[in-house]
């Protein structure tokens, strides 16, 4: 492993000052399941590793009917799974969390870390997109919010500036049902070959998102309204629109042909589950 200086700031203000001072030479440590592996394998490089796990003001899961659901950057996936703050309308977030790796890794891995890693196959990204999530970003210059549909810019690239960090993810108040399906070579021990999330709001608004089928996770929206319309009857038309948005590749986990076939199949399966209320 390469040499770096480990720093554990006491509060957010100190963390932001460090990030502003050292810029590209800093990596943020929240869970560490990606960054530590990268440091060991020399695919991630930094001179300063800033550990934010102990910053209390960043911790916690909160919900209210005005602002929706808020999840802080150090919150682990197991904390999401076990939280009583996450209501039925957000259950798909729990389903996606359960799909990632195994219980030991979920004790370390964080939602925000998965988002900031910005891998096209990140397990939490499709679900976060259909839930209309946005990240709250802070720097010494102030705060801003970025909708997740505008956050991902390429393979493991995003809209964060070098002096910024994500402090939390917010999902707006939402009523409806979501579904998530992931395919991987070895359950609990591999990144996804492909993943699909779908969400049908009570008002009939439908969103579909896919992972590992393009350089960034894909969000497909602007469908017909399905409040009083048969979702299952239209599943092939919806799947056609989804297929027109994706461009998968061959890699060590799956072929392009497999991903194309599974994208259609899993989209139709998601629509069937949503249409039947299962």
Automatic annotation (TrEMBL):
GO molecular function: FAD binding; oxidoreductase activity
Keyword Oxidoreductase: yes
E.C. number: 1.2.99.2
PROSITE patterns named in the record: FAD_PCMH
Gene3D superfamilies: 3.30.465.10, CO dehydrogenase flavoprotein, C-terminal domain, Uridine Diphospho-n-acetylenolpyruvylglucosamine Reductase, domain 2
Keyword entries, A-Z: Flavoprotein, Oxidoreductase
Alphabetical list of InterPro entries matching this protein: CO_DH_flav_C, CO_DH_flav_C_dom_sf, Diverse_Substr_Oxidored, FAD-bd_PCMH, FAD-bd_PCMH-like_sf, FAD-bd_PCMH_sub1, FAD-bd_PCMH_sub2, Mopterin_DH_FAD-bd
Enzymatic class: oxidoreductase
Domain FAD-binding PCMH-type intervals: 1-176
Domain of life per record: Bacteria
Annotated protein name in UniProt: Carbon monoxide dehydrogenase medium chain
